[in-house]
Amino acid sequence: MPTDAFRSEVSLTVNGSPYRLPLDHRTTVLDALREHLGLIGAKKGCDHGQCGACTVLVDGRRANSCLLLAVAHDGAEITTVEGLRGAADGEPHPLQQAFLERDAFQCGYCTPGQLCSAVGALAEAEAGAASHVTQPGAATGAPVTLTRDEIRERLSGNLCRCGAYPHIVEAVEDVIR
Predict the structure, then answer these.
(1) What is the reported pLDDT for 140?
(2) Confidence at 2, pLDDT banded by 50, 70, 90
(3) Contact 21, 70 (CB under 8 A)
(4) What is the rounded CA–CA span in Å between residue 144 and residue 136?
(5) Rounded distance, CA 109 to CA 172, Å?
(6) How many whole angstroms separate alpha carbon 131 and alpha carbon 93?
(7) What is the pLDDT of residues 92-138, one digit of tens each?
(8) What is the Cα gyration radius of the chain?
(9) Residue from 101, 93, 76, 106 nearest 13 by CA
(10) Are the C-beta atoms of 108 and 161 separated by less than 8 Å?
């Protein structure tokens, strides 16, 4: 069987720029970002979707990019940590600034995934998506107030081997105040 039978051209918009990539059908979004586009912010930690180091935003929702086949996301808009922006061009995203101010990282390996996950978690809470710890009486569809418990729960899929969790929660709290 010809090798072209196992490849397809995939269109992705990554950090606002369009790309057409001829990819093997087994290529994950993570590998497309790192190996084909040179965007190395998202990390390959466990390669099983358990650590969150590879978290990116896909069509505005956070996802473990190591579990996503690129061909299944043809036409998707992907935002990586490199694409997070502040209000002014060249300015860091407010979460990036808060992570710096709160020293919310140590080795930094998990930080890109933590940042993308936090951006997604803030958007989910604003849209009214409940988490496991959201109070049962909360109004459906109303923005969810992000308490420390909410923040911890929503970011629980992102592991930090250095244990910077308290500072990560504080950084997210700084942004929502």
Answers:
(1) 72
(2) low
(3) yes
(4) 11
(5) 18
(6) 24
(7) 999 999 999 999 999 999 999 999 999 999 999 999 999 999 988 76
(8) 17
(9) 76
(10) no
Strands of 100-162 (E only): list them: none
3-class secondary structure, 24: strand
- The hierarchical CATH code for the domain 94-176 is 1.10.150.120
CATH superfamily of 3-83: Beta-grasp domain (3.10.20.30)
User: Would you state the structure tokens that stand for residue 146, as one six-digit string?
Assistant: 């992000």
Model confidence, pTM: 0.93
Phi, psi of 137 (to 5 degrees): -85, 0
Residues 6 or more apart whose CB falls under 8 angstroms from that of 87 comprise none
Domain parsing of the chain, residue ranges:
3-83, 94-176
Read off the pLDDT of residues 20-66 as tens digits, 9 standing for 90 and up: 999 999 999 999 999 999 999 999 999 999 999 999 999 999 999 99
Q: How far is it, in rounded angstroms, from Cα 126 to Cα 104? A: 23
Grouping H, G, I as helix, E, B as strand and the rest as coil, residue 83 is: helix
